[in-house]
Each structure stands twice: as C-alpha cells, then as structure tokens.
Amino acid sequence: MAIQVVAQSRAAQGTGASRRLRIAGKVPGIVYGGKAAAASIEIDHNAIFHQLRDEKFHASILDLVTDGKKEQVLLRAVNMHPWKAQVQHIDFQRVSADQKIHMKVPLHFVNADASPAVKEQSAVISHAMNEVNIRCLPADLPEFILVDLGTITVGHSLHVKDLAYPKGVEPMLRPGENPAVAGASVPRVVAAEEETAATTAAPAAADVPAAKQKAPEAGAGAPAAKKK
C-alpha cells in the first residue's frame, strides 16, 4: 500500500506568504512534472515531519492527495531550517507508470560478522556509500538494495556492479564508473599485535642463549702436590 500525503492547494505566493504558512504550522511545497502544470501546495507540518523520519518515504512512490485528487509522486527535495527541527519547503515530482525514473535508494548491509574478513582476521568493514542511484519503472522501485558482505575478504571491496538488483532495476553509472560500496581492512593496532605475537613465538636462532659449558671436575686444574 502506497504512503499517502495529504495536501491542499496554495494560492498565495512569495516569501511573506510562506512565512505566514510556517507560523500557522504548514509547509509550503510544489508538485511538478508530467503533463500537468506545476502546482503550489501546503501540507500540515507535524504530519510531514514524522513521515520524513521514515526511510521508506524517501524511496517510494507516494500517493499525493491534493483537495481530494490523488496522483502518484516522488519526493524530490526537502529544505530544513538551519537549526530548528522545522521543514521549510518540500518538492514532489509526478510519475507516469510507463516512464522510467531515476532515484537514490538506501543500501542495507548484512552478514558482515559472517565474512572471512571479520571472522578470521578481525577486520573492520567500512561503508563507502549509504545509497545508490538507480533507474527503473515506478512499479519496480525497491525500498532498498541489499548488500551481502558474507564473502568479503581483507584487501578487497564490493562495488556497485557487484550488487544484486531486483528485476527491472539497474544502477545509474557513467561509462567506466564502478565505485566501491564497502571494503574490509585490519586495524593497525590489531595488525601490530599479530606481528608482535608472531615474532615472540618464533625467535631468531641468534637470540637463543648458548649452552652452558660443563663445569670442571673436582680437582681438575689444581696444582700437583710436591713430593717430599
């Protein structure tokens, strides 16, 4: 079931009108794209503020209901106040079922603890990306892309083209581009400790103390008694 956003059409324009809307607990916005003209809207601030906290809201086809009329849209831009928890402005783009869309969707990382890098070498997994830009039809839009780290090894990385994409979904890349998504490396402290342990366990032959010389037998080396 699509997430629904309730809005009202907005006639007043300009900075002053937008300021008054915010004081009244509303968020000014715009919806554009498709064959219809761009339309100014207003949305209840508290409702949209809580919806924006849901990850799915940012990578889903939304049902925007304006004055009772429903249309499918994507969230395209959100402007927040520099220091207040306040939404300043919001943009939506209309979508058509038969036209592919470009969208950034979040990456969900799994199985890091089961990877050889972590289990065998106590490596640390670093995430180079948290989202990926994809292209697909609206009906094929996934909420996220899964990144399986179960086979990652130290010194190797997973790249965008290595990921498994749902049917009808493809990554958006420039020619020759294939950026890293995640990598595994051993922390310097761990590497140093392992090197120290190996050195201690196998000391060089030159460091082994020489065997002690046999003690002389009693009387050996003593001066002979003089004959009377």
What does this molecule look like?
- It is built from 4 helices and 13 strands.
- It has helices at 15-23, 45-52, 116-121, 188-201, and strands at 3-9, 26-32, 39-44, 62-66, 69-80, 87-94, 101-110, 124-127, 131-136, 145-148, 157-159, 170-171, 180-185.
- It has a 6-stranded mixed β-barrel.
- The mean pLDDT is 87.
Helical residue percent band: 10-25%
Report how far apart the termini are.
Answer: 125 Å
**C-alpha Rg, in Å?**
34 Å
Instruction: Please state the overall shape, judged from the principal axes of the Cα atoms.
Output: elongated
Determine the number of helices (DSSP H or I, runs of at least 4 residues).
4
β-strand percent reads: 35-45%
DSSP E strands, number: 13
Average of the residue pLDDT scores: 87
Strand order of the largest sheet: 1-3-2-6-5-4
Low-confidence stretches: none
Class by SSE composition: alpha+beta
Biggest sheet features: 6 strands, mixed, barrel
Element-level helix/strand string: EHEEHEEEEHEEEEEEH
In short:
The model has no long low-confidence stretch (mean pLDDT 87).
Compile the SSE list and pairings.
Blueprint: E1 3-9, H1 15-23, E2 26-32, E3 39-44, H2 45-52, E4 62-66, E5 69-80, E6 87-94, E7 101-110, H3 116-121, E8 124-127, E9 131-136, E10 145-148, E11 157-159, E12 170-171, E13 180-185, H4 188-201
Parallel strand pairs: 1-4, 2-6, 7-10
Antiparallel strand pairs: 1-3, 2-3, 4-5, 5-6, 7-9, 8-13, 9-12, 11-13
